[in-house]
Amino acid sequence: MLNLVLFGPPGAGKGTQAEFVKNKETLLHLSTGEILRREISNGTELGVEAKKWMDGGNLVPDEVVIGMIRNIIERNPDVKGFIFDGFPRTVAQAEALDIMLESMNIPISGVVSLEVGEQELTDRLLERGKVSGRVDDQDESIIANRIAVYTKNTMPLLDYYKNQEKHFGVNGTGSIEEIADRVAEAIQRIKNR
Ligand code: AMP
Fold first, then answer.
1. Hey, how many other C-beta atoms are within 10 angstroms of the C-beta on 72?
2. Residues 78-89: pLDDT tens digits?
3. Residue nearest to atom 15 of ligand 1 (CA)
4. Around Cβ 117, how many Cβ atoms within 10 Å?
5. Does 134 participate in catalysis according to the annotation?
6. Over the stretch 86-141, which tens digit does the pLDDT of each residue have?
7. 35 near 89, Cβ under 8 Å?
8. Which of 32, 51, 83 has the most ligand 1 atoms within 8 A of CB, as the residue to mutate?
9. Residue 172: CB within 6 Å of ligand 1?
10. Which atom of ligand 1 is found nearest the CA of 146?
11. 28 SS3 class
12. 76: confidence class by pLDDT, cuts 50, 70, 90
């Protein structure tokens, strides 16, 4: 079983790279952002609630996203592994994920962390906002809030995973293919451990 976390700030390219990894390694790709956006477009109660947080670039409450992930993991006992994208985003989420996976004897194998500077993140998100239709990609102050939320709530996870010796940093700048090659190398190192 290969369980990977694709980690990084908003705009680091997690979704793009997760697609490559998913296809190469036959993993189930779990993007909490995508799952939440699907709930919004289906007009579910969860979607209506989540939208309030997402449009301002704030985090949806831990218990909501943890519950979503738990449901999906429990419904997919036969997969080769998972690639988590945009989850966990807080220490509470990471602890809950560890407990879930350890109780099933399928712990996180490694965390691939995409490293990109703040100005490039903002430029990428504004560019994506022209085509993504995402409210949270179109406004510079919402983007700044997303990056601030990342710094405050999500960056502490770097130490959480470094302490577990599961952190693999990857330069997230350059062409999509160059980055994909670096991600593949990091995954090979994770597999060789
Ligand atoms: P993303 O598509 O990963 O950029 O996520 C878009 C938005 O969905 C975030 O700004 C949050 O509002 C929400 N979201 C996605 N994943 C999580 C998570 N793990 N915890 C809390 N909120 C999340």
1. 14
2. 999 999 999 999
3. 33
4. 11
5. yes
6. 999 999 999 999 999 998 899 999 999 999 999 999 999 999 999 999 999 999 99
7. no
8. 32
9. no
10. 10
11. strand
12. very high
